[in-house]
């Protein structure tokens, strides 16, 4: 057994050690970040094909005292594994409610903000109560908050997710299925879950124009969503060509750098005021 342990250890390369150390550092720094309020939230517009804002996505940002800027793509999975994600989610929910409350008097027409939920959030049924509590505490109409959950997270916890989102929908919040089409799954679940919006993943948007088959795939997703009575939102739209293809084919919500990057609240409000004037 001893030699087996040794042999196994020899497969543990320097890179793996560094990677492991980085993960440990991030996990520890998350703990610190929650205590010292190091997170913030940026907002990215969702618009109609002519650029009218119809929503925004809240995206968490983290500048760590010890590690500098860390991308959510890196720290969110670590927060999930270390059991800290729901604390971050709760922090984001509070932040978004505060921001929505402050923004309402400053915009002509309030638009809903969507919050990303992780797989482990769906197992915390108390989170539903936390969300209700936050709406009441900050006086937020539930219709101004939406939730995004990846197809993968949803299917990993199908029964729990259904229970969770049945309550969320009953409160009046829309739910979007994020990163749609990136997992491998049967589509039959789509008729059984309370989903309002399908988000077409950036990888499909990136491939628009690459081949007839790539285009056919996007068309099929849009058509399927339409027939199921769901709204379609395309993410990661960067070019006029992608925009034209999507809007010509019935995708009515567009999100991407072509219109706006994720922005801190003051700049996001400026952006809204600018487009309101057009
Ligand atoms: P996501 O939910 O799929 O969010 C879309 C990501 O694409 C965001 O990256 C956004 O900044 C980026 N993006 C939007 N438009 C474009 C574009 O036109 N071009 C390119 N290249 N990128 C674009 P971000 O903010 O780095 O977030 C990465 C991921 O981290 C998110 O992917 C989401 O899975 C996760 N995440 C971010 N904030 C939160 C959060 O508050 N809670 C949870 N659970 N996850 C979050
Ligand atoms: Ca998202
Ligand atoms: Ca997404
Ligand atoms: Ca994505």
Q: What is the total tally of β strands?
A: 10
How many helices? The count is 11
Biggest sheet overview = 10 strands, mixed
Bound molecules: ligand C2E, calcium ion
Low-confidence stretches: none
Helix/strand order, N-terminal first = HHEEEHHEHEHHEEHHEHEEH
Distance between the termini: 72 Å
Rg, alpha carbons: 20 Å
Shape: globular
| Share in helix | 40-55%
Structural class call reads alpha/beta
Beta content: 15-25%
What is the residue-averaged pLDDT? 94
Structure in words:
The chain has 278 residues and is α/β, with parallel strands linked by helices. It has eleven helices and ten strands. Strands 1, 2, 3, 4, 5, 6, 7, 8, 9 and 10 form a ten-stranded mixed beta sheet that branches. Helix 5 links the parallel strand 4 and strand 5. The longest helix is centred in the first third of the chain and has 23 residues, at 14-36. The chain binds ligand C2E and calcium ion (3 copies). The site of one calcium ion has 4 residues, from loops. This is EAL domain-containing protein. It comes from Thalassolituus marinus.
């Amino acid at each position: 057994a001893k030699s087996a342990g040794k042999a196994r250890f020899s497969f543990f390369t320097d890179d793996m050690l560094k990677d492991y150390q980085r993960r440990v550092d991030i996990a520890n720094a998350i703990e610190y970040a929650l205590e010292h309020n190091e997170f913030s939230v940026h907002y990215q517009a969702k618009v109609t094909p002519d650029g009218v804002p119809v929503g925004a996505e809240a995206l968490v940002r983290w500048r760590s005292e010890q590690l500098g800027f860390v991308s959510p793509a890196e720290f969110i999975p670590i927060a999930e594994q270390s059991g800290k994600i729901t604390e971050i989610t709760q922090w984001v929910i509070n932040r978004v409610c505060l921001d929505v409350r402050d923004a309402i008097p400053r915009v002509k027409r309030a638009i809903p903000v969507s919050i990303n939920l992780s797989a482990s959030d769906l197992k915390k049924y108390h989170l539903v109560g936390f969300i209700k509590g936050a709406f009441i505490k900050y006086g937020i109409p539930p219709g101004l908050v939406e939730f995004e959950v990846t197809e993968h997270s949803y299917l990993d916890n199908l029964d729990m997710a259904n229970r969770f989102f049945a309550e969320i929908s009953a409160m009046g919040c829309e739910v979007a299925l994020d990163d749609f089409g990136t997992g491998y799954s049967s589509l039959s679940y789509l008729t059984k879950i309370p989903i309002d919006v399908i988000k077409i993943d950036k990888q499909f948007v990136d491939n628009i124009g690459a081949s007839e088959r790539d285009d056919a795939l996007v068309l099929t997703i849009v058509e399927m969503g339409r027939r199921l009575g769901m709204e379609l939102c395309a993410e990661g739209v960067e070019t006029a060509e992608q925009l034209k293809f999507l809007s010509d084919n019935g995708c009515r919500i567009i999100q991407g750098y072509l219109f706006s990057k994720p922005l801190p609240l003051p700049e996001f409000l400026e952006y809204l005021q600018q487009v309101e004037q057009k």
